[in-house]
Amino acid sequence: MTQGNSEVRKVVATEAALELIERLRSKHGPVMFHQSGGCCDGSSPMCFPLGEFIVGDSDVLMGEIGGAPFYMSKAQYEYWKFTQLIIDVVPGRGGMFSLEGPEGQRFLTRSRVFTEEEQRRLKLL
């Protein structure tokens, strides 16, 4: 998915995800995301109050969804850099550390491979 004339976004969100982000923001203030790489909560987008999850040199800012920054570890990014992350919402319990846990919905990452033209724009080719 592109935005504007030539911008290719590495992460986008569905309307349902944007609505949940806004609901969480109204309860918790500004939020941020980090794509979990496994462990306790599997591989899912985790939502935190802005600044609660400390990002560093080992993280990549993928973009923003609903005004919230979205990060992923550099190591994980190497596997995902040719795909666009599409953040969606499905029924169920969120990750135990993620803000949406009590909402009865959880964030889910879907993906699609960038076209060759999008890869060129992102300078991946």
From TrEMBL:
<protein>
    <submittedName>
        <fullName>Acetaldehyde dehydrogenase</fullName>
    </submittedName>
</protein>
<dbReference type="Pfam" id="PF05610">
    <property type="entry name" value="DUF779"/>
</dbReference>
<dbReference type="InterPro" id="IPR008497">
    <property type="entry name" value="DUF779"/>
</dbReference>
